[in-house]
Each structure stands twice: as structure tokens, then as C-alpha cells.
Design a protein that fits this description.
- The protein is mainly alpha-helical and 342 residues long.
- The chain has two domains: 227 residues, Rossmann fold (3-Layer(aba) Sandwich); 82 residues, Orthogonal Bundle (Tyrosyl-Transfer RNA Synthetase).
- Helix content is 56%, strand content 8%.
- The chain contains 14 helices and five strands.
- A three-stranded parallel beta sheet has the order 1-2-3. It has a two-stranded parallel ribbon with strand order 4-5.
- α9 links the parallel β4 and β5.
- α5 packs across α8 and α11 crosses α13.
- The longest helix is centred in the last third of the chain and has 30 residues.
- Bound molecules: tryptophan.
- Tryptophan binds next to β1, α8 and β4.
Length: 342
């Protein structure tokens, strides 16, 4: 039996618009890197730079983010011998497939996509004459590009945040529609939704997210890390008073990294009335220690972008080894193939 076939294909994309933060780490990067070491899983992880263009028209930022995200995943120990790690734009088959899928996707399906609907609703609220104001075709067709990302590699499982569930349903709809017209070619992917426990709190106690501007970058330099942790909101209980760990942002961040024994030990210090200043210093030292080695690797990689580029090229080559023959199959299915063949 062909062993490669039996592996479960797990695929996910990372939009290249920002600097990875601890929330990304806990929710997406850490589980993905763990899966990259699982011999029963064949991961495909890619930098969704074409998706990034939908949200961001700052070339510098797209470029920098691609560098930082790739360096982050590599520094944190992604196993690129197992995981196929590539840049979306290096695999032209993805955009080719996007067009073919566009031709079986009903416009009505895209009308229902939540990002598009939210943009229209916002225009209506503002009393705009044109409900589609500011909506590009990129935003409108975003779910088709995402479907192509997934279907091209016959992914079985797609780890995503809750906000992406609808896009996975659309990918299944699109795949089923194609299969109905042209025969069974695509695998219907399943969303693996990240649990709520994997949501990290940010500086202000809300979910850590770029959109709330409350994040801690994974590889913030030591001084910056310290400063950010000192900014985390707490209540105003005095040093001696016993404190409730379960409503505390500092504690919840610690818990996302520490072992159960470490967490229990810290619980006791809360009961004994650990001072906020002391707790902040403790969390700073803990995180600083935890990421110190990886941070050194990260900084080294940023100094050597050619190493990162090499990894991504290797990944793209592996991805295209899968994508090229499958695209040929799909083209043939729709009637596009050399005239001298039958
Ligand atoms: N849209 C996803 C997000 O914003 C990123 C993404 C692009 C993706 N293509 C994908 C995720 C394919 C999973 C599979 O999070």
C-alpha cells in the first residue's frame, strides 16, 4: 500500500498581514507544529499572501509579514521534512483552480458570505447609496480562493477559527457542485474548529486579537515583552489580599503555557495574596525564559532571509508535485486538454 495515501491530510493557511502574537501561538501555531511531528498526519501549511491582498494594500507590510510569519513557524520548530510549508503565490495551480471553481460557484452563494454581508450591512448603516461601496471582487470571491487552497490538496481536515466555519461549508458546497457536474474529483473537507480554551486573553482581558490592538508578539524583544506584561489589566486589590486566579488575565495567560503542577502552585500563591507587581514580574520571567531560545533562532532567521526563502521554495516544489498532476486531471475533467489526445 502507498503509505503517503493513507495519511490524513491536514491543511491550513495563515494570512500574511501581521506579526504573530501569543494568541496565534496558542490557538493555531502550537497545535499545527505539534501535528507536523505526527507521522500519521500529512500537513500542508501555507502563507496565504493572495488572501492578504484582500485586506491590505500596503506592499511593505505584506512582504514583512510573510517574512515574520515564516520565520516564526520555523523558529518554533515546524518540521518541514514532514509538513509541506509554502507560499500560496508560489503555487500557480491554486489560482488556476480558483477560476475553474468560480465557474461552478453560484453568485448567490457568495452573496451569503459573512465578510461580504458585513461590508454591505456597514454601508447600509452609514446610509451609503451604494451597498457595495468599498467591496472588491477579491473580498467578494474570497471563499472561492480559499476553496481552491483546500480542494487542490484533497485536504481531509482544516483547522480554523470559528469565523471560518462558513468558508469550509462553502468549500464543501463548491466541491460537491463540481463533483456533481464533472464526476468525483474533490474530497469534501471538514473544519476542525479550535476550541474556546485555546483562546488567549489580551492585555485588556478581551480575546487577544490584532483587531483589538491588545496583543503580545511572540518574539517581542525582552524590554518590549516586559513593558507589555506590565500593561496587562488587573483589579485594584492590595498586595496582601487573596486573589481570584480564575478572573485574572495574568493567570489565564500563564495557564496557556504552564504544566498542571505549575498552575496549581501559582493558584496557591494567588490564595496567599501575591502582589500584582510580583505576579507580572513572574509572568514576564516565565514567558521570557520559555521563548528565549526560539527568539534567538527567530532573530537569526530574520538576518538570513535566504534560508527562509529556501524552505519556502522547497515547500512549493513539494506542493506543486501534488498540484500539477491533479490540476491536469481537473482540466481534463472540464474538457481542457491537448487536442491530439482522446
Ligand atoms: N481565511 C483564513 C483566515 O483568515 C486563512 C486561509 C486562507 C485559510 N486559505 C485557507 C485557512 C485555507 C484554512 C484553509 O484565517
Amino acid at each position: 500500500m502507498n503509505e503517503a495515501r493513507a495519511k490524513e491530510i491536514v491543511l491550513t493557511g495563515i494570512t500574511t498581514t501581521g506579526t504573530p502574537h501569543l494568541g496565534n501561538y496558542v490557538g493555531a501555531i502550537r497545535p499545527a507544529i505539534e501535528a507536523s511531528r505526527d507521522p500519521d498526519v500529512q500537513p500542508f501549511y501555507f502563507l496565504a499572501d493572495y488572501h492578504a491582498l484582500i485586506k491590505c494594500q500596503e506592499p511593505e507590510r505584506i512582504h514583512r509579514s510573510t517574512l515574520e510569519i515564516a520565520a516564526t513557524w520555523l523558529a518554533l520548530g515546524l518540521d518541514t521534512d514532514n509538513a509541506v510549508f509554502y507560499r500560496q503565490s508560489d503555487v500557480p495551480e491554486i489560482t488556476e483552480l480558483t477560476w475553474i471553481l468560480s465557474c461552478v460557484t453560484s453568485k448567490g452563494l457568495m452573496n451569503r458570505a459573512h465578510a461580504y454581508k458585513a461590508a454591505v450591512a456597514e454601508n447600509q448603516e452609514k446610509g451609503e447609496k451604494d451597498p457595495d461601496k468599498g467591496v472588491t471582487m477579491g473580498l467578494y470571491c474570497y471563499p472561492i480562493l480559499m476553496a481552491a487552497d483546500i480542494l487542490l490538496f484533497r485536504a481531509n481536515k482544516v483547522p480554523v477559527g470559528k469565523d471560518q466555519i462558513q468558508h469550509l461549508e462553502m468549500a464543501r458546497d463548491i466541491a460537491a457542485r463540481f463533483n456533481h457536474i464533472y464526476g468525483e474529483h474533490f474530497v469534501l473537507p471538514e473544519a476542525v474548529v479550535r476550541e474556546e480554551t485555546a483562546v488567549l486573553q489580551g492585555l485588556d482581558g478581551r480575546k487577544m486579537s490584532k483587531s483589538y490592538d491588545n496583543t503580545i508578539p511572540i518574539f517581542a524583544p525582552e524590554k518590549k515583552l516586559r513593558k507589555l506584561i506590565m500593561k496587562i489589566k488587573t483589579n485594584s486589590l492590595p498586595p496582601e489580599a487573596p486573589k481570584d486566579p480564575d478572573t485574572c488575565t495574568l493567570f489565564s495567560i500563564y495557564r496557556a503555557f504552564a504544566t498542571p503542577e505549575e498552575v496549581e502552585a501559582l493558584r496557591r500563591r494567588y490564595a496567599e495574596g501575591i502582589a500584582w507587581g510580583e505576579m507580572k514580574q513572574f509572568l514576564f520571567e516565565y514567558l521570557n525564559g520559555l521563548f528565549q531560545e526560539a527568539r534567538a533562532r527567530y532573530e537569526d532567521l530574520l538576518q538570513h532571509p535566504e534560508v527562509i526563502e529556501g524552505e519556502l521554495r522547497k515547500g512549493a516544489e513539494r506542493a506543486r508535485r501534488v498540484a500539477r498532476p491533479f490540476m491536469a486531471e481537473i482540466r481534463r475533467a472540464v474538457g481542457i486538454y491537448p487536442l491530439a489526445e482522446r
